[in-house]
Write a structure and sequence with these properties.
By secondary structure, the chain is α/β, with parallel strands linked by helices. About 45% of the residues lie in helices and about 15% in strands. It is built from 15 helices and 18 strands. Strand 5, helix 1 and strand 6 form a beta-alpha-beta unit. It binds zinc ion (ZN).
């Protein structure tokens, strides 16, 4: 069966549905730069580590694109039946967090706690599944110190003026992930800008000696007064929580070099094992065709967009709908298009779950439903090809709309179709739950909050939001009015 499908990039592509067995998942591994069948170390549990945010400000939509791609990856692994242990770190000490805390007259802890909780709020609004753990760098200082001492005893590390550096010439595999990127002019310049004294321009700091700009931010242990470098925290937290050999390590492409290259060097020098089986990286995002930057005025956080009246769910859909390895052009038209696309799926889903069908089964509809589910999984099996997966969904939506013009869905088909929508939504995370039963107490709180908002009493409105959250409901303010979701 061959069908011509509309591709979200604007061209038509052909999808072939075949009767072959569903193939296993393949992923594009940046280490080796090929698509490879996914084979975790242990069948019963997949370990995934993703580089999390540096909590000095709100996450911007470029960061969020990466976190959403990682969410799709985790959700799809779970859909395929894997038990996933997923760790995302929080970088809560570095130059930026120290400077920002100082400028706002807060302690580093107060400051980073605030932006960590803002980060979690964003994830919740975007319906991102919670990680198994979110370790903070400052909770792992002792482990970081011991790791650096091990590197030093193996002579991968040297000390200059109280700072400790990794000597990349000692690690023969240095460059295996990023290849030519090490010699790239831009990257060399970036490394040379590092102000610390070191033997080789490309050596990087594992531990930075205290200086007066750090104020009261320092730890004083075996390595002397100072604080950890950024790269070392990921090596230490990932192996400490997930073990010395991790299945998947993900992040944005900008992390390949030097961050991930350095993680490999720091980890493998100590463990002598292959640190990560699959390195997966998502591409950049541009806004309305241009690089996002504060000076261009096209720099957006999630709250900027919500303040403009856009719904987080539509933003989620837009951010996951391109292939993760393609650059995504974020546009406001795109958010509106995402909204229409969700509505198309939601409408047919609601129609089917609300219908009261007659008994029986239409064999043709059963087979269309089955084919569609298979096409969705085959697309995602192919290195998470979301555009093709979405094209298969819209084909199904069209087929069903056509069918419903002259037919009613029968009982067994309803079960199959409901299962289909529930399956795709385990990955997409965009469809509304079936009707939420609200008791009088909750209804009254929502009304009081709406009244407070009309009176612009934001304090009261926020208090009621918190109260609803305690009762297990998330409030979303959308253009269409208040929306309530279960936590
Ligand atoms: Zn990292």
């Amino acid at each position: 069966m061959l069908d011509s499908e509309y591709h979200e990039s604007g061209c038509y592509i052909n999808i072939t549905f075949t009767d072959t067995q569903i193939m296993g998942l393949t992923l594009f591994n940046s280490l080796g730069k090929t698509k490879q069948p996914f084979e975790p170390k242990n069948d019963d549990e997949v370990t995934v580590y993703c580089c999390g945010p540096t909590v000095y400000d709100y996450a911007h939509i470029g960061n969020l694109r990466t976190f959403l791609f990682e969410d799709v990856l985790i959700r799809y692994l779970e859909l395929k039946g894997y038990k996933v242990k997923f760790v995302m770190n929080i970088t809560d000490v570095d130059d930026k967090t120290i400077r920002a805390a100082k400028n706002s007259n807060s302690t580093l802890k107060e400051y980073t706690n605030r932006f960590t909780s803002e980060f979690f709020k964003d994830l919740q609004s975007l319906n991102v599944k919670e990680a198994t753990e979110y370790p903070r760098a400052t909770d792992y200082i002792k482990d970081i110190e011991s790791h650096i001492m091990k590197l030093q005893s193996e002579e991968y590390c040297y000390e200059r003026d109280g700072s400790y550096y990794y000597s990349i010439n000692k690690f023969s595999k240095y460059g295996s992930l990023s290849g030519l990127e090490i010699n790239n002019e831009k990257n060399r310049t970036r490394l040379n800008e590092d102000e610390y004294t070191k033997d080789n321009a490309q050596d990087f700091a594992l531990w930075k000696a205290w200086d007066k700009d750090d104020g009261d931010v320092y730890w004083e242990g075996k390595l002397g007064k100072g604080r950890p470098g950024w790269h070392i925290e990921c090596s230490v937290m990932s192996t400490k929580i997930l073990g010395e050999e991790i299945d998947i390590h993900a992040g944005g492409v900008d992390l390949i070099f030097p961050h991930h290259e350095n993680e490999i060097a720091q980890t493998e020098a100590v463990t002598n094992k292959k640190f990560v089986r699959y390195w997966i990286h998502s591409e950049h995002l541009i806004v309305e065709g241009k690089k996002m930057s504060k000076s261009e005025g096209n720099f957006f956080t999630l709250r900027d967009l919500i303040d403009k009246g856009y719904d987080a769910k539509n933003i989620r859909f837009l951010l996951i709908s391109s292939h993760y390895r393609s650059q995504l052009n974020f546009t406001f038209d795109g958010i509106n298009q995402a909204k229409e696309n969700i509505n198309r799926i939601q409408e047919i889903y609601s129609k089917i779950i609300e219908g009261k069908p007659k008994t029986g089964r239409d064999a043709n509809i059963s087979s269309i439903t089955k084919e569609s589910k298979k096409a969705f999984e085959e697309a995602l099996d192919d290195d998470l090809d979301m555009p093709v997966a979405l094209a298969s969904i819209f084909k199904f939506v069209r087929d069903m709309n056509k069918y419903l013009e002259t037919n009613q869905v029968l009982e067994e088909n309803k079960l199959e179709i409901t299962d289909y929508f529930e399956t795709i939504d385990k990955v997409l995370g965009i469809l509304s739950d079936k009707t939420i039963e609200l008791d009088d107490d909750v209804r009254s709180l929502i009304e009081q909050r709406d009244e407070a908002r009309i009176k612009k009493d934001w304090k009261k409105s926020d208090e009621i939001r918190e109260e609803l959250l305690k009762k297990g409901f998330i409030v979303e303010d959308t253009k269409e009015g208040t929306r309530i979701k279960r936590k």
